[in-house]
Each structure stands twice: as structure tokens, then as C-alpha cells.
Fold:
Amino acid sequence: MLPQDQVIKEALKCSGCGFCLSACPVYRVLGVETLSSRGRMDTIRGMLLGELKLTPRMEEILSTCLMCQACEAACPPGAAAHKVLLEARHRAVKEKGMPWAKSLAFRRLLKDRKALARALQLVRKIQGPPPGAKRHDLRHLPTLFSGLAGGRALPPIAQKPLRERFPERVEPVPGVGLRGRVGFFPGCYMEFVDTSIGDAAIRVLSREGFEVFFPREQVCCGAPALFSGDLEDTLEIAVRNARAFANQDLDAVLVICATCGSGLKEGYDVVAQHLDGDLRDLVKRFSSKVQDLSMFLASRGLRQKLVLPEPLLVTYHDPCHHVRGQKISVEPRSLLLSMGNLSLKEMAEPARCCGGGGSFSLANPKLSIEIGRWKINDILATGAQAVVTSCPGCVLQIQEVASREKAQFQVLHLVELLDKALEGK
Amino acid sequence: MKKSLVREFRKIVGAQKCLETPEDLYAYSHDCYARGKPELVLIPRTTQEVSAILRIAHREGVPVTPRGGGSSLCGATTPIKGGIVLATNQMDKILEVSQEDRLAVVEPGVVTLRLHQAVEAVGLFYPPDPASSAMSLIGGNVATNAGGPRCLKYGVTRDYLLGLEVVLADGEVLQTGSRAVKDVTGYDLTRLFCGSEGTLGVITRITVRLIPKPETKRTILTSLRTVEEASQMVSCIIGAGILPTTLEFMDQAYIQTVEGLMHLGLPLEAGAMLLIEVDGFEEAVARQAGIVERFCKEHGALEVAVARTPQESDQLWRGRRMGTVALMRAAKLMISHDATVPASSIPELVAHTHEVARQADLKVVIIGHAGDGNMHPIFLLDPSREGEMERFEKASRELFRFTVEKGGTLSGEHGIGLEKNPYLHLQVNEIGMHTIRAIKKALDPKGILNPGKFV
Structure:
């Protein structure tokens, strides 16, 4: 999706030193060079240079990357592997079409929020997942309709989506002075599945004196399309979302999902160069306004003291799309540490991918769970009562693998804790 | 490769570990130096599997190139004659760490760093620390006799081997050495296989000697006016009875280039910098660091900094560790030599390297392990420049010649592989080559193991 010469330049940066191998979660489980960070970079480069073709094995190479960017953090020459991978996936889509996005339902639901809401309600009513999907747990909801659930579970759909629970504008709590106006981009999961996280975010913001603008025209962030190389749909989605928040004089557009944040910020910025003049500016302007809620609150500061009702020992898991995707790791911790009654105990490798990886977990269910097991063990080793994180994808993944492993700890989104700590204020 | 043969191999390791798609062959075709073209990749998990593979390969005369982490800088693990790439990375168990016998028994696929961590957790220490420790495999370390910065005081991989299990070219399994530190029974076969770069057998089990983990260490960074002064400083320190763990050298070209890229505040006017580490018991370390600091000041060092905490130490290492990373990011192509000379010849080698590079119109910066004379001239090349690679080739040849003339060696730690094969005769004379070939012929008569190397 980057210009060709830029992608080749990134791919050529890889010297084959292999420092990334110890960081690659997939290699750590499979131990096969071809499906490792280095092997992937090497074979993709081979494809870009015309030495290899888009074979079924190459498609496997493309689909077994978590896009966790751990390899990039370990890369001495600093090759942007995820950009190279995106370009390769984009080519694969152009050449072969996208197997799961061929599903018209998927493409429509990515872009049509109302239709998605209706479809999900239908799913809820028939009390079971659509054909092909098993129980709870799907990352990006539109993929639910792609028949690609691959044995992973589907989460229970909320009775009432977030959009039916709040008006388009939520005023600050009475008596709290107005500190600013922010846009809110909850993302699919918070809007339709675990709406309580979205509730919590809106409550925290309005208690802290922010007017929350929650436009109904917003759609999926487009990450499932972006990460699978579907440029055309990503562009359409980007423009829709940019329009939904345009001309509103907002301090920021806040996200509470690390993946949405990465998609809206870096992802849109990269794809925007495929748009013309006004539209490109519109998307770029929107993209530059997007901020993670924890970053926003940490920089603006909280007016009220944060105190949990009861003592709690937590550990923090860094979502890939935070720590590497957006370079966020300090702010969530500083919010946690500012809470009374909370102690933080770091796990061994807090920034190691949990194995969720969006549609990765659907395409590679066994591998995803295998990678998730390490995370569970790292969390258990801290003895924490709860693991806190900032991405619903991680919440779901950790929850599911923890329940398989019969691990007894809570999995919380940071916003839920913030909400608890502000309760009764 | 014949279909029936592939079937035989697949039966040994299973379909998942027998890879033959063009993508798999591509991914396993190279190391950091060169690319070859294998016909099959096998990933065995046991000695028995390795043995069964080699028995067939030997029968059929199929080349077998063993592979560890695949990070060779000299093409040691590039399969240049087709055949099989034998990846040992899934044989990755630490079988034993014995505190009483101070040894560890490991499979070849154990990542070096994991071995470090496992033995340090029980108060023991495995000193060899190649720069690639975070991903290199111990089997590869043995096959290439890996070194690292700590080797000045502690020696290299070969100095920590007690015994090996090696699958020979015909599939027979050889046990060398023992669990005893003192062992003079028969030829020292363990050391023969160490550094043989996979040309004599496939290492499947390794018994390493361990030592007590030093209590603490101290890092000192000093800058000096000239390379000669740095060299004198090194003699002075060792002459005073101090054997530092590490004595890293950085020359002016390195300091200036890295400072230009990273703005760390390195002294641009310095002719050389030395990064010195001493380790041991706290009292001894404090005293040694004090002496080193005093020497530096007495010998007109431009600056001296002593780190007292791990954080301060990391800070002092930044210019050295992150510097090479910055160079890698800035250069189109970076090739590092590892010519090693007796310590007294370091100033000459540094001066000569710059002179040769100047004449060949090449950019070079020099770092090295000063205490043991293991220098790393790092060439920052641009292959798109007219004749650059030819000029580099010529400069390399001259530097290798010079190194051998000074009583040094072509390679201190990277190995021979493909890169230095053409220069082997500079150091190893007719009789030496004859001996090497006789050993090779005795152990691998059909020449199936990593063919094209060491010949």
C-alpha cells in the first residue's frame, strides 16, 4: 500500500541477522524459519522481486503473521516489516481476491453500521453463532459473517448496542465545569459486544468534564480490511469515518481500542496517499486528531482523585498496537499508578503478543491459543488478581485462553478500572 | 532430488518437518552472507533422526548442510551444493544443569541466551557471549567456536566444552570427551569438531563446563588522544595484573560517524575510546576499577567515566552497542571483518586498515576487542558505486595478508565459510591444507557434509 520503491527499500533493509527470531511469537511456537519473522521478510521480498510466486504456501506465510511488530522492535536496521507484509497482502488480494472478504456480507457490514447492528441482533436472537462459527469470541465483528470463525468462539452480543444507550452528544455531569469537547470512536467490540467498556469510557469522560460527541455515521475502523490488504474498502471506510467527525471543533477523537487507534492513526495516514486532494486532507486531518483515551487523560490530567473501592493487585499487558503500533506504554501505567488502593506488578514480558492478532486467531486458531498460553503463564506468575489492558482484542484472547487453562484472574480494560476508581465522585 | 528419496526422508522426520516448497527452500537458502539453493529442508528432533538422515544421505551421496541460527557472517551455513539443509533448532532441550558438577548438558538448538539465563539462575556462568547470543544456537556456537566481548578474560566456546555427541557423515554416533574437566584420554576430538563449521559431523548434544557467576562488575569508559595511547593503556592495565572481562576499542572514525548519527555526546576529538569491564567480588572489582581509573587519569585520558549501577553501565555501553545499530541503519551495505592480531600490533593494524581503505576509496570504521587483538573493521559500502565491491575485495585481500604477516589470523570469531575460503592458503600452508583434507577424508569420505567449505 506504500509506493513500490518504499516497500522494496524497507524489505531490503533486512540483513538476515535473525535478531527478530527470538521476538517472533509464531517462530517461538512453530520453530520453522519459513513461518518466522525473518523467513517471512525474506520470502515476501522474494515475491516482490519476482523470484517467488503467490502459492498456497506463500498465502500461509502471509496469514501466519500476527502483525505484532515485535520483530521490528528487535530489528537492528529497523525494517518496517508490517508495511512490507501489508503490501504483500494487498498484492495477494489484487491477484487472487480475498477469500473471506469475497463475502459481500462482510464488505457491506464493515461499512454499514445499522446493517451490522441488525445482523448482530439477529445472531443474538437465534441464540447461536452463524454457520461456521462456534461459541463466543470474534475479534472484528464483520468477520463473523465471513464464515472464517475457524473454531474460535463468538462473544455474546449485547442486548442494546452502545448507540442505543447514549445520545449523539453526552454533556458533562452536572456541576462539573466543561473542560473540552471530544469525539468518541468506540469501535465494533465496544459498540456491539461488551458495551459496558464503552459505557465506562463515556462516564469517565463526562465525569471529568468533557462533552462527548458520538456520531452515528461512524463505521468499523477498517482494520480487518486494512490488515488483510483490502485497500479499496479501507479507503471508503476511512472517508466515512473522517466525514462523521468533520467540522466539529473537537479537541481529539478518542479511541479505547489499541487496534482501532493504530488503524485510524498510522493506517489511515498510509492509505490516505491513495486519495485525491480534498479527501486526502479530510482523512489526514481526522487521523491526526485520533488519540488513545489513556494518552489524552494522562496529558490533560484528572481533576478527581482516583481511588479503587478495594485493594487490587494488577499486572498490565501491553497491546501490540499500543506499545509498538503507537509507542504507548507509559501513560496507561501512570494512570494505574495514580489510583489509590492499586498495586502494579509487572509480568515477565508485558509487551509480548497475547496471540490474538485480530483475524489471525480465526485463521490460525491452534497457533493463537498456543501463543496465548505463554501470556497466561506470565500473568499467573505475578500472582495478580487482575490483568489490565487497553485493547478488546487482547481482553477477549486472554479471557478465552485463561478459561481454557482454568486460570483465576480478572481481565479488565483500563477504562473499566478508571470508571470504578471515579465511582461515587 | 528423487521423489523416492524425499519419501524416505519424510518418513524419518514426518511431513511437518520435511519441507520442499519453493518458499521453504528460499527461506532456508541463506545466512547473513550468501544464498544457496537447497533441495530439501529437514528439521529433526532427535539424534536418532539425524543419524537416520545421514545414513541415507551418505548412501546416496546427498549433500547435507547443518544449520543453527542461520546468522553466519561468512556463509558457513549457506548450502552451495544443493542437497539437504539440516535445521537443528527444534532440538532445543536443556537436559541438565548440574550445580555440583558445574556443567550443563544441552541439545544444539538451545538459544545461547537461554543457556545463559538457565545457568545464571542457579549461580553459575557460561561466559562465551557472541553478539548474536539473543538468537544464536549453542550448536552453531560450537560449530563456529564463537567468541564475544567477555572472551578476553574467560576464553571462547572451545574452552568450555567437556564433551560432544556428534553424528558422523555415515550416520554413526560418536561420543567425545566426558563429564570431567581433566581428560587426556585419546585425541581431543571435542576440539576437532569445535569450529569445524559442520564439515565433519552434526553436533547433537553438548556438555559445557560452567564456572561460578561473578558477584559484580564495573564498567569504565575512557577516551584517549591516539590509538597508540589506547594500546599502551591496554598493556598498562594487563601489566598491573588486571585481566578485564572486556576491553572494547573504538577508533576515531567510529566515534565520529556514530556521533554524527546519534548525538550521544561522544568526544569527537578523541583518537580512540576504550570500554573496560572488570568483574568478580565487590572488593576486588572496586580496587581494580580504582586502578584503571587512576591509570587513565595519569596517562592523560581526555575523559573517564565509571558506572556503578547496571543503568549507568548500559549508558556507557550505548555508544558501542547502539552505535553499530546506527551504522547498520545508515549504510547501504555493512561488512565487518574479524581479523585478529597479537595485541601489540593493534595500532599498526588500525593505521594500515585506514590507509588501505583510503587508497581503495572505501569508508571504514574500526571497533574491536582490544585485549585479544580481535579487531572488527566495519566497511560501510555502497554497492551501487562503480567498482566498489571489486575495490573492497582487493582491500580485504591486502588486510588478510597483513594480518597473517603480523602473526595473526584471518578470523577471530566469525569463521571461514565462503567469505574467507579464497584466503585460507594465506595462513594455512600446503602441509596444513593437506592435513585438513586428510581429516576431512577420514571422517567424511564422500564429502557430503557442508560441501564447498574448508577446501
